[in-house]
Amino acid sequence: MDLLEVMRKRRSIRNYTDEPVREEDLQKIIQAGLLSESGKAKRPWQFIVVRNKEVLEYLSRCREGGVKMLKEAQCAIVVTGDAEAQDVWVEDCSVAMANMHLMASSLGVGSCWIQGRLRKADEKTTEEYVREKLKFPENYKLEAILSLGMPAVKMPAYDLEELDMDKVRIVE
Predict the structure, then answer these.
(1) pLDDT digits (tens), the chain, 172 positions
(2) Residues 114, 28, 84, 120: what is their CA dihedral angle, to the nearest 10 degrees?
(3) CATH superfamily label, 3-167
């Protein structure tokens, strides 16, 4: 499958089966993140892989309104970035998230990008809430969480004919 076809078929999956994510697939997803481009090749990210169901349940309350897909997920990858090491850590971590999202889709693993940065969990930020449980250093900032599981639903691929080409401006 070529990359454009993977992108056409990639959808955010919020419902998962009880089937585990295969270890070799998880490793490929992590490798895709680690291979990501970053400014000045600093790679400021740290990925925290969570498989523990109690921790996933805790993380499902990391944002106002909750993110129930983490309760059903077989695992999640919490992506943090070292804000002291890289001024564009947000962009770098976003590229890593996107690469992992695409790799998951190419392997038939469902995933959902759960925004953490600039979000709140009741009286504290989502970052503070997640840090309390996962104990990552203060200089590392939360970008997002990628939930992973085997899809309980089949979503249709995007239709290339329906892309909004009005969002493209060509200067010749």
Answers:
(1) 699 999 999 999 999 999 999 999 999 999 999 999 999 999 999 999 999 999 999 999 999 888 999 999 999 999 999 999 999 999 999 999 999 999 999 999 999 999 999 999 988 999 999 999 999 999 999 999 999 999 999 999 999 999 999 999 999 9
(2) 10
(3) NADH Oxidase (3.40.109.10)
